Amino acid sequence: MALFGLTKQERSWVLYDVGNSAFVMLSTALIPVYFASIAEPGSSVVVAWGYAETVASLVLALLMPFLGSLADLQGNKKKFLVGFMGTGAVACACLGGPTEALPFLILYVISSIALNGSMVFYDGMLVDATTEDRYDKVSSHGYAWGYIGSCIPFVACLAVVLGGGVIGIDMMLGMKIAFIITALWWVAFTIPLIRNVKQTHYKQREPHQLRNSLTGLVGTLKAIVRDKRLLLFMVAFFFYIDGVHTVIKMSTSYGTDLGIDSTQLVLALLVTQFVAFPSAIAYGRLAGKFGTKRMLLIAIFAYFCIVLFAAFFLRSAVEFWVLAICVGLFQGGIQALSRSEFGKLIPKDQANEYYGFFDIFGKYAAVMGTFLVSVFTQITGNSSIGVLSIAVLFLVGFALLAKMPEK
Prior knowledge:
mainly alpha, Growth Hormone, Chain: A, 17 helices, globular
């Protein structure tokens, strides 16, 4: 074991989280604020942003099981990951080009699809980077170092965007530079994974592979339905991860709609990253002591409480800071342990195919969550009601996961 108790392969896998998290952080904190500055005056940022996220999630959910099946073939995982990462990094670097809302949203949807598509292949490589008894630890380190690592380019982006006026850089030019910084960071931290992690679990190539992949997807779906533990976990995940993704994607636009200063929003979300770093690592250790399922149930209930707080009490910057800290305590844990628990339940040589279905459940949940927030906000004219509409999904996810039988 080397630094941080991780092997070279495990550290290289973890570093991809450091790279792609820079774009996740930017899209959570600064991009919605930038989009608000170029959107039509009087339009709802929450509604437009929610629909954009819905489209991205829907496209990805339709693509990933099939692409995941092909990625499970010998030698394909890295090719697919690099292809999606490269597309996403280029799209990210180009986000500073459009000056109108619609072209910007189209380019953002492309970059979002590429980012999340690369994450499916990355998740599938967990089974290649380490052993099953270390899934919780390594997955937790991925999210933890992703949180803290994303802060470095993000602080640089903040300096250029918010402090660029000192050297004659306005906000628009600052954002263009920020998009390029983020893209370069993403590419740089992909290199260790490409060099050091080999695909050790795979399916052999066969004639008529495309047709066989489609047939195999049907067989995989039937296998999921027959496996009670796996099915219950995936359906529970479908519900609770909906709220998690919605909180992540909509928090800044929700705060903007409430009239909270954009600087306060960005700084609060930066604090989330620092809180999430030790919390995610702690969650991995606690899972080893108390069990992954129990720790997931605790995180789901905590998120339910967070949503209630956001809907009923969040009105000022101080309350947004409280929300950001609470989210940081549980965000990394619930995502990391969901990823590792799923890896324990699936065949290793079909990891990407199964993670493709895992992504369907996660992304269609994200479709439902962002859609619910947008629709209820648009109907009522109150974004707090939109946020409240997703709370019930945490309750359903909790109940289903609680029913999942032990081994």
